[in-house]
From TrEMBL:
GO terms for biological process: transmembrane transport. Signal peptide: none annotated. This is Extracellular solute-binding protein. Gene3D superfamilies: Bacterial extracellular solute-binding protein, family 7.
Amino acid sequence: MKRREFIKVSGMLAGAGALGGLPGTLFAKDKVSFKFDSYVSETAGPSWLDRWFLSELEKRSGGVVKARRYWSASLNKVGEHLPAVRDNTSEMSLISPGYYQADLPVTRGLEWYFRMNRADALLQVCRDVYAEFEPLRTEWEKRHRAKVMYWTNWNYAPLITRKPIQSLEDIKGKRIRGYGVATDVIERLGGTAVPMAAPEVYTALERGVLDGVYGFDFITAVSYKLHEIAPHFTDIGDGPHGPAATVINVDAWEAFPESVKANCNEIVEEIYGGQYSAIMNQALQDYVKKATAEGVKFHVLDDAQKQAAKTLIQPAQVNSWVDKVAKPAGIDGARMQALIDQAIARHDPKGTLLRPSEIANKT
């Protein structure tokens, strides 16, 4: 029985000692060794992209780069990764903003539901806003000394329940574990949001403490075997889930040989150019097949119910961030959200990554 495991941050150390902030210069002939640390397991949603990036970097560097991988919070505890990257004690890490709400107020402006359709498009939206909205870059690069290597996300997060959900009425009163802004969705739809550490979720479902789970991406939920207790996976029309970023300490990045930087940039362009979609499409296809064989029942709310849910969530969710987070922090929230709207209009119609329920219905 698998349990969801949490992140640890990564670090990048140069063979010549330059990455730890020590004097010295790395050259292509030097070995570059660094730690990549993640709070989740290597089979969790974003880990598929991270594993591909690290493997490609090692391969394309011709043996110069060696990435030491630390999965499942084996190096740092959950919540320690952002400061570890900032202080260059761990140089590279996956950061999920929901764990750093006080530290990443601008980035929280990228977290919402019921606003777009495709996870591969969300990747592009985050990239554009990072380039266009200077306070977002400042938050990462100056406040936390972390360069965003590439944006990622947790693809799709169905509502996972012990009993089938056929309408919004069925959600009312249900005790549902949420994460980040997912808790807001649960409450606005009439459920009771239950804060709970991910490793406790399976047992809580098993004991009846929870009626369901929201905010677990599909791949992680299946690998964590939540469907053994809660087999009903419902698409409520919420769109992609959980923007996140894989980041590197800015000093560690500057200490990289130019050839390694070029390798990184080349791989990142491929991620945005379609590799994310290719990797996640195959992973979702495989996990839908696995889930179906293991008894998952896929449901989709009808269009009227989806629209009713959207009306309850938006624009209230975005306006809440503008009023309660952006304004007190001196962030021009309206401008950021306008840039997001423009990016969604550019990219969402081009998104192709199917939701698990769509894949299931095609097989």
